[in-house]
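We store sequence, tokenised fold; for instance:
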Amino acid sequence: MKHTGILSIFTYRLIAVIMLILCSLSLVGITSAQATATPEATLVSSSAVTTITQAKTNISSWMIKGKGTMRDSTAGIVLTSDTKENVSAISATLSADFVYEADVTIQDMQTDASLVFRSDAEGGAGYWLQIKPTSGQIQLRDASGTNSTLQQSYDVDVQAGQTYHLKVKASGSQLSVYWDKQYRPVMQVTDTTYHSGYLGLHVWDGSVNFQNVILSDLNTNLKTPLLTTGIWMPHISGKIVTAMQESIKVYNLRSTDLIAEADISFADNGQGSTAGLIFHANDKATTGYIAYLRNQGNTISVELRKRDGTLIAKSAQNYMHQLSSNHHLEIRMIQNRIQIFVDGYTPAAITVTDNNYTQGYTGMIAQGGQIIFQDVFVTAPADYYTEQYRPQYHYSASRNWISDPNGMVYFEGEYHLFYQDGGQWGHSVSTDLVHWKRLPFALKWNDLGHIWSGSAIADTTNASGLFGSSGGKGLIAYYTSYDPDAPNGNQKIGLAYSTDKGRTWQYSQDHPIVIQNPGHTSTEAGGWDFRDPKVVRDEANQRWVMVVSGGDHIRFFTSTNLVDWTWTDNFGYGDYIRGGVWECPDLFPLPDDQGHIKWVLMISTGANPQTAGSDAEYFIGDLTPAGTFINSNPAGKVLKVDWGKEFYAAMSFAHVPDGRRITMAWMTNWDYPFAFPTTAWKGEMTIPRELSLRNTAKGLRLFQKPLTELSSLRTPLRTITNQVISEQSPNVLADLQAGSYEIEAEIELPATYPAQAWGFEVRKGNNHKTDIGYNSAEQSLFIDRSLSGNTSFAELFSKRQSAILQPINRRVQLRIFVDASSVEVFANDGQVVFSDLILPDSQDTGMRLYSKNGEIKIINVTVYRLQSIWKL
């Protein structure tokens, strides 16, 4: 094969100079552009620089090297070489450690296609990850052809015209190659020839289409750099800067009031290093504010300074720091009030009033080591959590999406809410279960696979032996390890733990998997459904119990040390199955109203025509000393948790200090789990609810009560008492307007001329309303959302639900929670509950109390506006 592109003497001289300057950083083999103040600037060359605008890529400024052409199209980057020639497209983007990937389509079998990385500016030295159809291989090789030891290969089946996904992960001397849809690397190589360089593409003898050419980089809404000093490069974990001297990257986004966030880690853990955000700066970054994190070894402190170095304020306390800590920095500047939060802790690390700088640009700043920035977002307060359908007091992620709640646990003054986000655990913390602070991802994909749902427990006595060097206590997470390459994911139970109050998590080296898949044998990994572990303390028997979903049953395990688990029981099968697969079990003890302890097992069931989508049910019983669950009701007895259609994967918090059993669920249905028409974010949780067991005429039942702490959000709008309403009565709520509110009502049906139906219409507009009504003849409560707003996004979106609800002394008591995209109804102290999503227009803010064909008596109706939990 012919190769072109020999390094010039001038380039070699520049490399030698840079190596001398940067030898302390161990950045060997880099090109001249790395030493400039703006390493992502256009390359100096006689060739034309091409910026890709149509193909999907986050890499810009490409130059053609060799013999051929490059064309930008919506189908991808088309790189075409002359016959029997090489052509490379080398970008202006430098990186050392990264993930680089593309979808590659080869039209002719004689054509070779490569991802080029850690390359020189000419494409003549660096690495090629190459698809070679003629030999049926992908190869990892030295582009210069001088390193005879590096020519690793992997056999693949390549067909002309087919598209294949090619990916390489470079981390130090470790190079990992991934092919097509495989999760695990097909090649792993240790090579020290090249440490950093440019990214590019290469073709030999033909035409290749490259689409979705993506390099791991900073997630941010800051787009156009205004000023760059220092060496900033895309990195596996975001954007890395090597900052022996002060390094700044300021973006062309001008703000007044702002909410700014960033995740920051100290890659070399240099004590004395500083990193943070500069805001309200001028275009030269000579004025403005700086919010710093200062690395002090085992702790970090927070500082607010003027750009000239003047200290405005410093945090009164230091915060925990570990080698692998990823710190979350949040700045809120509204008018002249500045608040700085770190790692989700409240109150703020710094709260001051200062008006020296009222507007300006925002960016990143670092000094004293290698710093990695990720998820840097700047938002105007008016735009923060104000998108269409965005809930104001239900938890939703600021970006991306959420599904199953995971790992819900109370520990040392904080509630931790983890949740699914793309097979990873998102994370937020709260001190009151109402207001939440976002943290970086807690559990990310690891070598074994994706991190599916699970739970967390506090080990306060070091029963696990994991916390001997960290005060004898910490948090343990149990998660479903899902291997995309294995049959049915080879689902098994993995373990991770945290020694710093849940801020930093590590996968256990000694116990990476605590329970193997039940189908595991000496020759088979096992492909059974086996997921969603929930762990609970069984104090009566001095042990922990784990329940795991098994498709059509729940498996029980016990342990005395949180590491070694013994199977004790299977519960379910046969007559218990009325719908879809069983998922997300929760197990907990609850006293009944006589104080007798019973065990409650809650499950969610997947979408099924028999249950009109997904559903949730529970069982009440006893847990024996042998670890078996004895159901108090017959197998065919169905006890529904929620009568609405968007209540799934409910999970309760462990270790709540006052003994309450508090739960939250994901508001969706598996008939349309991610179909809701929201942008930038997707998914929300129910409000937190307190659970109890009460005796009823039909036996012991689960009751749900809205969390008491939610009352802190209330502002009274109206109270009506002792008033009779008929069909001809004016609407007593006619002049009230609100988007997020609560209605607390007690309604009596008179002995004479009682209404055949009555109810509340909420989020009411000219064309929309959601009807929460009561049918007196049927003694049923219903929700009708057929006119609630947008209902066209999913064919199976259920419009109406109902449940039997008998009046108590002719009265019905309701608590109705209305938000921008949901209604939750708690009837008769939570004996019957509905959780439903609605998608009204933002101007649909009216409400109505109605009575049909008769009268009702208002014993009490109070309407409260509920303030946003995202506004401070």
